[in-house]
Here is the input.
Amino acid sequence: MIARTRRERLHEIIFEADTPVGRAFDVGLLVAIVLSVAAVMLESVDTIRAVYGRELILVEWIFTLLFTVEYALRLACVREPLRFASSFYGIIDLLAIVPTYLSIFVPGSQSLLVIRTLRLLRVFRVLKLARFVGEEAVLRAAVRGSMRKILVFLGAVFTLIVIVGTLMYLIEGREGGFSSIPQSVYWAVVTVTTVGYGDIAPQTVLGKLVASLLMVTGYGIIAVPTGIVTVELANVRNTRVSTQACPNCGAERHDHGASYCNRCGAHL
Here is the structure.
């Protein structure tokens, strides 16, 4: 009973942000994440590494050990550690510490520690911005609902790009820099996305006319996915999301007022 009480208290501190202690823990964790990422970024600068290389490596290891202890505590305070370990945040927490240990065997892999920035997603829970978490859920649902339409649209765009690229290969030819159909398709992609590197450009009047039409079409193409997602956003009902974490698996983002975890079914 005492062990269970300790685990529940540890869970409240680590996973919840409703208490002063839990909030302080999460704010401290966010600060540590930002500082650790800053250390990794500074270590990649040659002039800084030449002077403070050892100190930055030491700081990196200190933060990694702290995050390792924190990850172990998260596993210890949930009733089903494997469920938490396989969750989104569980995987991110693990990826935040693996690169440092991996750098012992694979030099340079510590640069992957910028993955820690993903842990800043916890700021939604720390600041108790449940309303914004709910908005994120709405946006995710809208993107999911519009995915098929966007894929069909992208298929049509890809077909158009191949056709125009092939046409430009026939019009301009190798003399104009369109040495192959793949090279011409690359030009079409750059043109339709309005990037316009300028490494390949049409020289003939007909080629410039086709390029102009493709450029104008590109503006319309960019607007279509936005319209599709906007329509889906209007159709998705905004739902309130709770910041409470499941004591069994550590899952978050339950429906507001939910009594059971939507991932493992445990009582909240």
In short: The radius of gyration is 26 Å. The mean pLDDT is 81. The domain at 135-235 is CATH 1.10.287.70 (Helix Hairpins). Strands lie at 241-242, 254-255.
